[in-house]
Each structure stands twice: as C-alpha cells, then as structure tokens.
Specification:
- By secondary structure, the protein is α+β, with helices and mostly antiparallel strands.
- It has 2 helices and 5 strands; from the N terminus they run H-E-H-E-E-E-E.
- Strands 4-3-2-1-5 form a 5-stranded antiparallel sheet.
- The termini are far apart.
Length: 81
C-alpha cells in the first residue's frame, strides 16, 4: 500500500506543519485538472491557508484544489534550438 501524500492532500499537510507559502497549480475541479495545460493561462498561486474546505492564495482567492509544484529554469541542454 502506498501511503505517500500527493496533490491537495500534500498541500494541506505542508500547511499543517507550518509552511507559509506553497507554490501550487490550482483549480476548482480536481487535482488532475489543476495539472493540465490551460492554454497559456496562469493557474498557479502561492497557497497560504486552508479553511472551510478551500485553499486560499496570497491574493485571497479561494480554490478547491491546490497541487504543489516545483519551478526550475530550463537549461540549454534540455531544449532543441
């Protein structure tokens, strides 16, 4: 059995342990939908709290789902020019 936390469950656990700002892909439909390409729209936010069944970002907007993401710079070796 796999007991590893992932998706919105992981975000809730990180907030519960005291993390202050968690960079997440956000959506109101599902964790899976949060991670999909949204046609160039920016569906990422710093999540700062969870209460009353919603995640709240640093701008105060509520979200149903928040999946932690890691952003890193792309290196020239990783792309074809």
């Amino acid at each position: 059995m796999n007991n590893q936390l992932k998706g919105s469950d992981l975000t809730r656990a990180l907030l519960a342990r005291g993390d202050k700002k968690i960079w997440c892909a956000v959506c109101d439909d599902s964790d899976e939908q949060a991670m999909m390409d949204h046609g160039g729209n920016d569906f990422t936010a710093y999540i700062v709290s969870f209460h009353e069944g919603c995640f709240y970002c640093s701008a105060g907007m509520p979200w149903g789902y928040a999946v932690p993401i890691k952003v890193s710079a792309v290196m020239q070796l990783e792309v074809s020019i």
